[in-house]
Design goal:
- Helices cover 42% and strands 25% of the residues.
- The protein has 110 residues and is an alpha/beta fold.
- The protein has a 5-stranded parallel β-sheet with strand order 2-1-3-4-5, sandwiched between helices.
- Strand 3 (49-53), helix 3 and strand 4 form a beta-alpha-beta unit.
- Helix 2 (35-44) packs parallel to helix 3.
- The radius of gyration is 13 Å and the shape is globular.
- The model has no long low-confidence stretch (mean pLDDT 93).
């Protein structure tokens, strides 16, 4: 079984860390740097995991759309947030897990 993840992130460093960690777990990474292309992929394809850098309202809207769409409603949703961002907001919008910025290999593996 091939596992596939969608990573929605424009931070090159975070993306590099996530690619390395997911690669070690043999999870293929599809990457979208913007919300528009991510929304299109979410509407067309199913992913085992959707990882979203929640840096603004559009990012949180994308997180909510993962749960409301048919293709990925059961996907593992992971929100990457800043320490000052409300943890409750991320979980309320459908995140299964939250990772705080800055992303490190240790945080990503956990």
């Amino acid at each position: 079984m091939n596992l596939t993840s969608l990573v929605v992130c424009s931070d090159d460093r975070a993306l590099r860390v996530l690619r390395n960690v997911l690669g070690e777990l043999e999870i293929h990474v599809e990457h979208c740097a913007d919300h528009v292309s991510a929304a299109k992929k979410l509407a067309q394809y199913s992913f085992e995991a959707v990882i979203i850098d929640c840096k603004d309202e559009r990012s949180f809207g994308l997180l909510a759309s993962v749960r409301s769409g048919q293709q990925n409603s059961k996907s593992m949703a992971i929100a990457i947030i800043e320490a000052r961002t409300s943890l409750q907001t991320a979980f309320k919008l459908g995140a299964n897990f939250v990772v705080f910025k800055p992303i490190s290999t240790e945080k990503a593996k956990s």
